[in-house]
Amino acid sequence: MAKKLKIVFASSEIAPFSKTGGLADVLSALPKALARVGHDVKIITPFYRQTKKANLDIKKFSKKVFVQLGDRVIEGDIATTKLAENLEVLFVVKDEYYDRDDLYQTPQGDFRDNAERFIFFSKAILSTLEELELKADILHLHDWQTGLVSALLKNIEINNPFFSKTRTVFTIHNLAFQGLFWHYDMHMTNLPWEVFTPEGIEFYGKMNLLKSGLVYSDILTTVSQKYSLEIQTPEYGCGLEGVLVKRSKDLYGIMNGVDEEEWNPLKDTFISNRYSVNDLRGKIECKKNLIQEFKLNLDPGRPLIGMISRLTDQKGLDILSEAIAPILAENAGFILLGRGEEKYHRFFQELQAKYPQQVGLKLDFDIPLSHKIEAGCDFLMMPSRFEPCGLNQIYSLKYGTVPIVRATGGLDDSIENFDPKTLQGNGFKFKDYSAEALLAKTKEALEIYRNSSLFKEIIKNGMKDDLSWEKSARRYEEVYNRALKK
Which of 210, 282, 365, 368 is the 20 to 30 A CA-CA neighbour of 161? Predict the structure, then answer.
C-alpha cells in the first residue's frame, strides 16, 4: 500500500443518509474502498430531514461550529455516526438550512437561499476540522456545493498553520450543475473582491461556486476518462472549457466502480432470486417477478427493457420519446423508474395508458425497485445526451443486464459494442444523438437477444468485468500523492 493518508471527503449527499443521484452512491463506496486499503478516512456532509428519517444511531458532539457569513456569525452543531467499522461520518447540523423535504429544490425550482446554505456548509467544513482537530492530508471535495472550500483555503486561510499541509482534490460529477448565484451573495463568502474576476470565481457577472473549485483546487478529477476530454470542448464544457483546458495537466478522469456490498446478484436482499455468472436460473425468476410486480401481460421469453433515470433531456428522454413506440412494436416490454420534468411524467403516463400490457411505470425514486429492475430486465437503456460516468450501466453489467447506451462520457468508456463474430463486447452503443440511431441499435440488440447462445455470451462478458471500487481507489491514491507534491 502507498503511504497511509488522512483523507476527508466533503459532499452535499452521501447514501444511505441523503441521496438525489449517483453522487451519493460514489460518496458511500469510494471512502469505504480507501478505508479498506488502510487510509484514515472521514466524511463531512449536511444533516438533512432525509437523514433524520433514516433513524440511524447519530450522536451530537458538545462542540459547535461558528461560521461567519458577511457580518453575521451563524452557529451550527456537529454530529457523528459510522458508515462502516473504520469510517466516521460527520454531520453539519443546521435545521434552518437543511431540515427540508428535498435537498436542493422543490418541483417549482431551486431553494432561493441555496447560496447561503452551501456557503455556510463550505465554511462549516473547515470549521469542523479545526474544532475537532482533524488535520487532513487530503480534503476531497465534490461538486459545486463544496467548490468554495478551495477558494477559502487559498485566500482567507492562506496563513492558517492548521491547514498548511492540507491539499485539495476537487471532483466534477456533472459540469452542468455549477452553483451560479448573483454577485450580491458574494459578501457572505468574506472573500476579497479580487477573486471576483474572470480568472477567479466570476462567471458572466455571477458568482460560480463550481468554478471556484476548478480554479483554486490543487488537483481536479472527473468520473470517466472520456468525460475529462469532453468537458474541455465547447460542446460539453458548459462555458468552462477554457478554465479546464488551462488546468488540463491537473485534470484526471477516473471511472466509478460498483459497491459490491450493495450491488451483487449473489447477495442482493431486494431481488426475488439470487444468481451468478455460473448459474443464471435465478435471473429468469427475477424477470418473472418483475413482470408480475408491474402486472404486465408479457411472456418471459420476450425481451424486457428497463430504464432507471432522472426524467430530463440530458438523459436522452427526448430521443427515447420518439423511438419508444417503434421499439414496443418489436414485441418488447418496457419498464421505467424515475422522476423529473413534468412533460415526461405526462408522456410516459399516456404511453402506459396506451400500452398497459407492455409498459410498466413508477414515477419515483425507489431503491429496492431499482435493484429488481437491474436483476429482472434483459436490457437497460441509457441514451444520454451526455453522461459524466453513469452508474446504472455498471450495475447492469454486474447483474447480467445488457446496456444499450449512447457513446458519451463514462458510457463510452465502460461499454464495448458486442461483435457476434469474435464474441467480444458487453453491450450496445450508438454515436449519433438521434431517435433513429437509438432505434437502429435497439433493433440490433433485440436481434442478438433472439439468438440465446449469443445473448448468453454478452451477459457473461459483462458479469466477468472488473468493476470494483478497489481498482478506482488505486487511481485516487496516485492522484492524492500528486496533490501532496504540489
Answer: 210
